Every structure is written in structure tokens, then in C-alpha cells.
User: What shape does this take?
Amino acid sequence: MMDLKEYRKISLEFRRVASNLLKTDYRDGNIPLIRFKKYIDNTETIKTMIDNKISNVEYDCNQFIKNDSGWNYINTPILEEEHIKAMYDYMTYLIDNNISVERIALGFLCDSKKITAHIQYFIDQAFKPLIDFINDGLSAIIIMLEEEKMGINVSNNHGIVNVANNNSNIESDNIINYNDLSEISKIISTIIDNLKQIDISDEERENITDDMDVIKEQLECSIEKPARLKKAFANIKSFLTNAALLTSTGITLSTNIQHLISLVQPIVDKL
Assistant: This one.
């Protein structure tokens, strides 16, 4: 089994490849999708994760995209394992048959008339759950290895984690525990989805999304770069002053950001 450092490296690499896929520009063609699948297939940990999930699943990926009133939509399977297989197989189908992502994307109803917006909307709808599945799997492995490395014994003691030191004494310390990290990860995913629904510039949306990714990355990597975490956290707090958050669609986002701040602030205060 690989060590913690190697799994962190895979997690960081995957996040970058996945981010590039979600930000596909119309000038990129199918390259980000091809690179994404190539990374999955060539990374044993991720490929095994997917294979274990879908190995005994039967699902025809031709059922994944449906059409209604002239517009395409994602026909999401109810079972998670069928959904994972549908996404992976449909991605394979597009690449193996050299089918243009742009052509498929333009068949989806999108709020914007821009080709890039159509492509990013399609990719988000079609493959974001697969990205989340892989991210969650890698995070679970990293958390498990961190607990083993630190000798952590998580018990029902109001969120306090007991850490065994080399002298076999037990100390209590309010470090990041599994439940906190899991909740932070979920609220960040929700915020990123919320950001797509408010009226801000693409650059601003991308910047705040990157800050969210930095916070998640640093917490999962035991805060290897505190300065990066502090800077990203400060940017997110500053974003709360954005006028777009005063709109009806921005209120939910504002509430979620405030919740994230309440979770991360105690961690930042200790740095």
C-alpha cells in the first residue's frame, strides 16, 4: 500500500485534472475529457476504486442521455453504482468514437448562448458526480492513513480526538476530526454549486471556487501550507460583502458561506 504522501499527491493531481475538465473552453475540444479519463485509467488507486464499484453492474450508457421536446437531458440512474458506470462508460463512448463534446453539449438547454457555457454545463451535469465520487474516495483513504499515522482513537467524546504519543500517554486536542472534515467537504461542494446560480463575472466565480478548493485541499493535507489556507479563507470572508449575495439566489449562498466560516475559523485561529 502506498504511503500518505503518495495518496496526497494523487489527490492534488486529480483535483487539478478534474478542475481543468470542468473549466473546458470551446477551443479545447475533447482534450480535457481525454486527459481526465487517461489519468483515471493510468492511476491504479482511482481505477480500482471505480472497478470495484461497477464490476458487477449492468447498465446501457445509451440510456444516459435522453431527449425531450428537442433538448437533451441527463437520465440519472437511481442506484449510485449504475450512475458511476453510466458516467464512466459514456465518457469512454465519447472518446472511443471521437464524438465532439461541443456537439453533444449544444443539445442541452443552457441559460447562456455561449458555446463554452453550454460545454461546461454539459460536463458538470454529465461527469461532476463521478468527480465527487473519486474525491470522496481519495479523501477517505487519506483520512484513514492520517489517523493511523497519528495513532488517533476517535471516540464519542464531544468531538475531542484522543491522540496517543510515543510514551503511550493520551492527550486531548481539538484537531480536525473526520466529522468536521466531512461536513466542510460537503458544504464546499454545495457552495460551488450555489456559485453557478448567482450573477457574478466568470473570473470572480473561478477565483472564489479556487479558494474553496484550496481550503479543502489544505485541510485534507493536514495544512501543509498555512499561508495558502489563511489567504483563501480571507478571500472567502471578503466575498461576503459582494452585492450579488443580497439577491434572492445569493441568500442561500451567503448562508452556506457563513456556515463554512464557522467551521473553518476555529482551525485558522490555531495556526
